[in-house]
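Lecture notes, unit on protein representations.

Consider one protein chain, 24 amino acids long.
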Amino acid sequence: IARIVARCLWEESRLLQTAATAAH
């Protein structure tokens, strides 16, 4: 389960970083 949670957090952080980059 920890692996799934880690992946969810990784995906979320990647999407947030992509959104922040797109905002610029």
